[in-house]
C-alpha cells in the first residue's frame, strides 16, 4: 500500500461483494422430443458462468437452435430445467426472460414498422420503461440511427440483422443468445458484430452464440461446446480444445515427383498429393516426438529433395468434423 | 403484471389498424348503406312492421352485429396469424408476458376497433331511419361484450389457422350462415314452428335478440337467455384461448 493511499480506495477496487456466484445459465437434463418423434435434445447439461462467451458448435440439425429456444420459451422442453441468472425459465419465467435477449437465426421482422418503432416496442414488451437516450445510443452503436425512420422492409439483409440485434438488446439483457449471428452476413457486419460482442462482455453481459463458422468460435469464445445429434459431446475451453485435439500437417513440395511412398518412409503417416509433387505428413503436436526431424533425415538419406515446406495447424473445423464423426462411429460401430 | 408489455402490443395493433384506418371505416359504412338501400328501401317498403318496429329500424341491430362479427374475426385472427406467419411471434413468446396478458393486449385492440366500427354503423343508420334506443347503457355494454367475444373467437381462429385459406374459411362457412339464419334480418317468430326450434341451437340468435332488446325493449328470446348465451360464448372462447397458450397449441413446438 502506497503512503497516502487510503484503505477506502483499496476496498473500493475489490470486486463488488454482491456479485453472486450464480451462473448466468444453468441447464440440467434439458430434453426435447418433437411431436413428430424427432429427438432434438437428449438431456443436455450445461453451465455458463457470468461474463463468459460460450460458443455452441454443431452442424445443421444438431439441436443448437432447439436448445436456445427451449431456454427462451419458444419451444416447450420435454424434460429438465434451465435457470437464467438463478431464475427458473419455466416457473419464474418473468424474472428470467427480463434478463434474456434473443437474436434468432431467421430475419423475422415486421415489414411495415420503422426501425425506431420496432426497437422501442421490444423494450416495452420486456417491461422496461421508455428510455430515448439509451435507444439512441443503441441505434448509433449499431449504425442504425440514420435509418431510424426507415421501414424495415426497405433495409438490406445486413441492416435487418442489426435491427434484430438492437431489438434483443433494447431491454438491456444480462444474458444474450445469438443464434447463428453471422450466417449470410458480410465482412463489415461480421467485424462489427465481433466488436459488439467484445463490448458487451466488457459490460459483463454473458453471451451464448451458436455457429457453424468455426473461426467465429475460435476468435470469440472463452469456451466451446460441440453439439451433434442432440448431445453435447464436449465442453472445453477453446484453447484447451485446440491444444488437446490440435493436429498439424507438414506439406513438402518435392523437387522431383514421387510415384509412390518409398518403403523406408512407411513408418510415418504420409500421403502423396498434387500428382506426387507434394508429400503430406500429418502429426500430433501433443505427441512426445512429432517425427518431423527423423522424417527429414530419412528423406535426406533417400536423396528426396524438396523446394519448399509449410506446416498448418488444424482449425477447430477439422477438430469438430473429427468429433462428430467419432460420436457417429460410437453409435454405429 | 407486465403492463408496459400489454400496452406495447395494444399500441402496436392499434397502429396497424391506423394504417388502414380509412378503408376499414369506409367499407362498413358502404356495406351498411347498401343493406339499407336494398332491405330498407327496396324490400322494406313492402314489409310490414315487425312487432311494432318499422322494418328499416328492425334490421339495424342485426346489421351492426354482422359487421362487427366480420370485422372482429378478420382483425383478431389476422393480428395473431401474421406474427405466426412472419415468424415475429418469437419475440412475444420469449417476452416476460403471460398468456392472459397477451390475449388482453391483442383482443383488447381488436375489440376497440370493432366497437368503433359498430358505433360508425350505428351513426350511419341514423341517416336512413329513425332509431330509438330504449336502453342506451345496456346497448353500449352489449356492444362491447359482443366485440370482445367475437374478437376472442377470431383470435382462436388465428391461432388455429395454418394457412391464409383457413383464415378465410371460418368467416365464410360459419359466420355468414349463422348470422343470416340467426334472425339478423327477420324475427325468428316468422319461421315455421319446427325451424324456430332448430334455430334456437344457433348462438347468434341469442346475441341478436339481446342486442335488439336494448334498442326496442323486446326480443325473440328472454334477456336472461341472451346474457347467459353471451357469457357462455365468451367464457368458452376465453377458456380455449388460454388453453392454446398454456399448451402452446400451434404457437410453439
Automatic annotation (TrEMBL), chain B:
<feature type="transmembrane region" description="Helical">
    <location>
        <begin position="55"/>
        <end position="82"/>
    </location>
</feature>
<feature type="transmembrane region" description="Helical">
    <location>
        <begin position="227"/>
        <end position="245"/>
    </location>
</feature>
<feature type="transmembrane region" description="Helical">
    <location>
        <begin position="169"/>
        <end position="188"/>
    </location>
</feature>
<keyword id="KW-0813">Transport</keyword>
<dbReference type="InterPro" id="IPR052522">
    <property type="entry name" value="ABC-2_transport_permease"/>
</dbReference>
<feature type="domain" description="ABC transmembrane type-2">
    <location>
        <begin position="19"/>
        <end position="248"/>
    </location>
</feature>
<dbReference type="Pfam" id="PF01061">
    <property type="entry name" value="ABC2_membrane"/>
</dbReference>
<dbReference type="InterPro" id="IPR000412">
    <property type="entry name" value="ABC_2_transport"/>
</dbReference>
<dbReference type="GO" id="GO:0043190">
    <property type="term" value="C:ATP-binding cassette (ABC) transporter complex"/>
</dbReference>
<feature type="transmembrane region" description="Helical">
    <location>
        <begin position="137"/>
        <end position="157"/>
    </location>
</feature>
<comment type="similarity">
    <text>Belongs to the ABC-2 integral membrane protein family.</text>
</comment>
<protein>
    <recommendedName>
        <fullName>Transport permease protein</fullName>
    </recommendedName>
</protein>
<keyword id="KW-0812">Transmembrane</keyword>
<feature type="transmembrane region" description="Helical">
    <location>
        <begin position="21"/>
        <end position="43"/>
    </location>
</feature>
<keyword id="KW-1133">Transmembrane helix</keyword>
<keyword id="KW-0472">Membrane</keyword>
<feature type="transmembrane region" description="Helical">
    <location>
        <begin position="103"/>
        <end position="125"/>
    </location>
</feature>
<dbReference type="InterPro" id="IPR013525">
    <property type="entry name" value="ABC2_TM"/>
</dbReference>
<feature type="transmembrane region" description="Helical">
    <location>
        <begin position="194"/>
        <end position="215"/>
    </location>
</feature>
<dbReference type="InterPro" id="IPR047817">
    <property type="entry name" value="ABC2_TM_bact-type"/>
</dbReference>
<keyword id="KW-1003">Cell membrane</keyword>
<dbReference type="GO" id="GO:0140359">
    <property type="term" value="F:ABC-type transporter activity"/>
</dbReference>
